[in-house]
Amino acid sequence: MARSDDNSSAAESVRRKESQSGAFATTQWSVVLEAARGDVTRSAAALEQLCQRYWYPIYAFIRRRGSGRPEAEDLTQAFFEHLLDKETLKKVDPRKGKFRTFLLASLTHFLVNDWDKRQTWKRGGRLKIISLDEAAEELFGREAAEPASPEKLFDRRWAALLVANVLAQLKLEYSGEKKAPVFARLEPALTGELPPGWHAASARALDMSEGAVRVALHRLRRRFGELLRCEISQTVTNPAEVDEELRQLFSAMSA
């Protein structure tokens, strides 16, 4: 219950900030940008949290560019170590609005300019910035081979990760004995098209009226939107960029 209250407070905070004209004051990415010009330790802590949350698109991007699993794991760790270096943090441009675009540009530059250096890196001898999930390679292997560029697939994976994070938060909010079956039944309706008769079938499965199912789905979709905006807000610096980022990410998922 406490986590649910925290999420509600976070979403409400986002809405309040979006009603203002100034930049977000407390998002993780704005903390990185602001603190990098002064308190590098605070900036590094905020950046490390972002890296731990959004590392998979980086790993998959490196794999997509042709690196094998061991090398991709080392390069992922080395890249985040590079980002968290004090001198690198001091060079972060405060005008960089989105963490996603900053991360991809920095990664591309890192891979191109450190090619010779990375030939001498020894596996297992580097500082572990993040814990790479063992399921990452399995997930990468399940992804269909597509002709899309690594950059386009990066955006698609980023969008999918955002949605997955939000769904995990929603599942936690609906973890109660009465809410869990409702969420399990309604969750597919958040990201997919509804087949004919879905509302009636769901009403029978949940022992609810069809009208109650429609209301429950409306509330779930509204909460999903709130949490998604809250998630995105942590990676941009001002309210206007939330809507822009939403459009770009939905476009990436449908491409």
Descriptive account of the structure:
With about 260 residues, the protein is mainly α. The protein has two domains: about 130 residues, no CATH class; about 120 residues, no CATH class. It is about 70% helix and about 0% strand. It contains 15 helices and no strands. The two termini are about 35 Å apart.
Descriptive terms for the model:
255 residues; mainly alpha; globular
Number of domains: 2
- Strand-pairing-aware structural class: mainly alpha
**How many strand elements?**
0
Shape: globular
Low-confidence stretches: 1-25
Question: Helix proportion of residues, in percent?
Answer: over 70%
Number of helices, counting only DSSP H or I runs of 4 residues or more: 15
Tell me about the biggest sheet? Answer: none
Q: Could you tell me the mean pLDDT? A: 80
Our measurement of the CA-to-CA distance between the termini, rounded to an integer number of angstroms, reads: 37 Å
Strand content range = under 5%
Please state the CA-atom Rg, rounded to the nearest Å.
20 Å
Give the topology.
Elements: H1 2-18, H2 28-35, H3 40-53, H4 55-64, H5 69-83, H6 86-90, H7 99-113, H8 115-118, H9 135-142, H10 150-173, H11 179-186, H12 188-191, H13 198-206, H14 210-233, H15 240-254
Helix pairs in contact: 1-14, 2-3, 4-5, 4-10, 5-7, 10-14, 10-15, 13-14
